[in-house]
Amino acid sequence: MSSYVKAIYDRLDFIEFKQNILLLKQPQHKASIFYDLTLGDFLKIKDLTAKVSDIMTRGEKYTIDDFEKELFVIWPPIKSYPSSSTLVAKALMDTQYFDQLFMHDN
After folding, report:
1. How far, in Å, CA of 18 to CA of 88, rounded?
2. Do residues 34 and 18 touch, judged by C-beta distance below 8 A?
3. Which end of the chain is more exposed for a tag (fewer CB within 10 A), N or C?
4. What is the pLDDT of residues 52-104, one digit of tens each?
5. H or E segment and range at residue 42
6. What does 58-103 look like in DSSP terms, one character per residue?
7. How many CB atoms lie within 10 A of CB 88?
8. How many CB atoms lie within 10 A of CB 29?
9. Are 75 and 92 in contact (CB under 8 A)?
10. Do 85 and 33 contact (CB within 8 A), yes or no?
């Protein structure tokens, strides 16, 4: 795939992610924090969710706390948004891996 086509796919994924955040968020929460999310930060978060899915595919334990720590390092402003890690995981992970991640939630 050419770099131009990859850039278009990345942009479309980014737009779809922001749309999903608006649809998945709790009604009482404002998702305006995601307005400042850059494409570069989004791609890092997307890579993180892919890494987490790979870890869980191998049967290794990975908790929501582990996910939050890595997520907050990638994009610190998200730490101020209630339930941000849940929202990001729900928007980017397959249901199977999302459920598995939260099965270990303490």
Report:
1. 10
2. yes
3. C
4. 999 999 989 888 899 999 999 999 999 988 788 899 999 999 999 898 888 75
5. helix 39-57
6. TT----HHHHHHHHHHH-GGGGGSTTHHHHHHHHHS-HHHHHHHHH
7. 28
8. 13
9. no
10. no
